[in-house]
Each structure stands twice: as C-alpha cells, then as structure tokens.
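Minutes, project check-in
Item: structure for the 557-residue chain
Input as provided by the requester:
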Amino acid sequence: MLPVCIGNFSTSLIRFYANSCKIKGRIPNDFGNLSSLLDLDLSANSLARSIPTTIGNLRNLQRFDFSNNKLTGFIGDHICKLQHLGDIYLGQNQLSGSLPNCLGNITSLREIHLGSNKLSSNIPPSLGNLHDLVVLDLSSNNMVGSLGPEFGNLKVATLIDLSVNQFSNEIPREIGGLPTLVHLSLKHNKLQGCIPNSESNMVGLEFLDLSNNNISGIIPMSLEKLQNLKHFNVSVNKLYGEIPLRGPFKNLSSQFFNYNQALCGSSRFSIPPCPTSTKHRLNKKRLLVLFLLLGIILLFALITSVCVWIRYRIRKRAPQQADSLSAIIREKISYYELLQATDALSESNVISSGIKVFNLQVDEAFRSFDTECEVLRNVRHRNLVKVITSCSNLDFKDLVLDYMPNGKKLVIPQTNVNAQENEVNPTHGMRTHNRAHTLEPVPTLGVPPVPTSLPRAPRTNVNHPLTTQRDISNAEFSMRAQMRKFASALLDDLVLECKGAMLNWELDFASLTVDIQQVEEKKKKIAESKEKDKKEKRARSTDRNPSQQQGGNWGKK
C-alpha cells in the first residue's frame, strides 16, 4: 500500500513513478499536497476504489497514468481543473458512468485513453473542442448513441478507436475530413447505413476496421485511392455489390469480406462473379448513342465545310465572267440607237425574215415574246451568239446580240462545209409585218470564204457595234438553218420540261382531289348508314307495339 505520509514529500517533487510495483489498496488523498507534480505514474498495479478528488489540486499536472488497475467509480469533474493536462491514461480499469461534459474544456489534451472500462454514456459534443487531440481510445466500453459531426473537428487525430461499444446510426461523413488519421476502428458496434465516400479523402489511413456491424450498401470504388491502406475489414455486415480490385484491394484476402449479404467480384475473394448490371448496360448504350451523335455531327460539319469551300471557289471564279457580261446584260439600248445603227431599219441591213404569229385574243400573247427572249438570253452554247437584250413596242420587236468584231475566229461543227477560219461580222435581225412578228436569234458562226465572183454586200457603219450583213451565201443560209433547228430543239426541250413539271403538278392535284372525293363519299356512306339504322330502329319499335296502335285506332273510330 501507499503510505499516508507520502503527502509530506517536498512540494518541489515533479515526478512520481510507481508503476508495476504490485501496490494494493487505494490512492491516498495526500497526493493532493504535491502541488508541483507534473507527471504521476501508478500503472500496472492493483489499486482499487475511486480516484481521489484531491487530484484536482495538482494544477500543474501534465500527465497521469492509472491504467491497468482495479479502479472503480466515476470520472469526476475534478479532473477538469487540470488545465495543463496533456495525457490521460485510465484504461483497463472498472470505471463506470459517463464522461464529464467539461472534458472538452481541457484544450491542452493530446491523448485520452479510456479503453476497457464500463463507461455507458454518449460521447459529449464538447469533445469537438479538442482541436489538438491526437489519440482517442474509448474501446471496449458500453457507450451508446450516435457518432456526431464533432469528429470532423479532430483535424490532427492519428488514432480513433471506438470499437466494441453500442454505437448506432450512420458513420458521419465529417470523419472523411481527417487527412492525418492513420488508425480507425469501429468494429463490433451497431452502426448502420453506407460506407461514406468521404473516407477516400483520408489519404494517410493505414488501418480501417468496420467489421461486425449492420452496414449496408456497396464498397465505394473511391477507396482504391487509399494507397497506404494495409488493413481493411468489413466482414459480418450487409454489404453487396462488387469488391474493388485496384489499389490496396490487390493485396487483401477473402477473410476481410466474409459473411456479407451479396458481395461479388474476383474469384480470389472466394465469392461469385458479378453479373452485368442494368445500369452498366444503360451506360454502355448511352456512350454508344453519344459516339454516334458525335460521328454524325462531325460528318455534317465535314460536308458543310466542303460545300462552303466549293461555293467559295465558284464565287471566286464567277466575278470574272460576271464582270465581262455585266456590261452586256445590263446595257440598255434605245429604239433610237437601233434606228441609227441600221439606217432606219433599211432593207439593206436585213439578214433574214420569218413569221411569228401571236394570238391577240389571249391576254398573255405579247408577254410570250418577253418570255422567249428571256429563255434565249439564258441559253449558252459555243455556236450561239449571246442575246444581250430586247427592244419592243406595239409595232416593233427586236433582239440585240453580242457584237463579234472582225477577226474573231470560230470553227464550224458538224457541217458539210470544210471547217475554216474566217472573219465574222456582227448580226442583228428582226422584221415586222402588220401583226405578225419575226423573231430570229442569229448564231455567229465561221463560214467558208465567199467566192470572188459573187458580189459582196456593202457594209454600213462598220465601226458601230450594231451593224448587219446584206448578202449571205448559200452555205451560210444552210448553216443558219441548222442553228435555227438547234435553237428550236433547245426551246422544245425547255418546253417539254415545263410541260412535264406541270403534268406532275396536275397529277398530284388530281390525286389529292380523288382522295378528297373518297373522303366525302365515305362521310356520305356513314351518314346514310346512320340514317338507315335510325329508320330500322323506328320500324322495330312500331312492330313491337301493334296492339297499342290498333287500340288507338278503334278508339278514334
């Protein structure tokens, strides 16, 4: 036993060690007189009874170790007077009751060892005030309640052991905010819910034991990031789903996953393989659809780019041709200029004449001339002179063709006359006779040289851009006849195309009309059938009551 006179030791005593000395009895109250004591160690003895309240007088005490004894009773509030206390060792005793709420006021605490006792209360929320707490051991007690969010405030904790208690409800997500935590044991409790994904943030974690609880759900794949994890035990729970294979799970054995609800995965864990889940198949389908959409978008973008590039190239080439024709197409030639160029439409400047009949009873008769001129203006052929414009009034109609200066060289295609190079004069042609009008587009062609024995027609206003020839050889007439046939064939093709388009439209309209007629006939038949049904119902009602009708008739008589 410790003697009572121990309290007579010098007040300057700083350390008192009596561990593993087989001391029995109780801790004397006289220890409270050692006011300068900093470290008190009475561990591994057989000390009994309760902790004396005089311990609260040791205001300078920084550490006391009463572990591995037979102490009983409660942990009193007198401990909270030790404001310089850093370490508490009271494990392996028979202490009961609850933790004092004022324990969180000793902000200097670094280690709390209260394991293997009979404590039976909740963890006080004030424990979250111990921001410098490194070790918290409350294992092998009868503590109850939930694990509160205050655990998230223990930022520098390296060991938390709450195993073999009666804690219930879920594991708090805030526990994942402890990056320095190395050891976490929550085994043999009544914890429920899922394993929080936040545990993957505890990058320094080496030991994690969640066995013998009621934890359900899946093992988060995010735990594969815990590269320092060496021990992971989730046996005897209600977990299901696939066991992760990468990271620390590559070195774990099957015993750490036994006795769960429906875990699956690799054969080395002695569990059945995982079937392809519906969610996994849906994700694959979504990825396939996404890739198809991306492919379609890229293809559409490529086609659009090619079209834009082709259109750009066409526009880049078009201005040169448009500039060369703009002066001709947009040029306005007056009737006075035509008279001046052809000597008042002199007979000597006529190339050829013909008949074009207009039906004046039709409203659009004169507009057909403008339409034909527009068609001729849009016709392009290497053997046809371009039509610049037209000039017309009630008594006069004329076509203005492209001027071909002397020296222009062309080759005659598909003629009986040998193809030769020759000078070509500009040509214009239009004659009017009463209400019949001649409309002759004249091609500019190269023809064989005229024999010297034949007289050549005099030229009028050779330097003017609008001049005509007078005499034409037989070969030239034949060639012009062929070109007229060619132009007429082109016009016939255009007319046929227009008629075909009109015929298609008429056929579509006729089919639509037939459909409408069929619908109307069906409506009419339905109405007739309804009327017929009404008449039959009336006849049936009349047949059912013949006696009433006869009685009514006798009464009238």
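Outcome recorded: The chain is about 25% helix and 15% strand.
No further action items on this chain.
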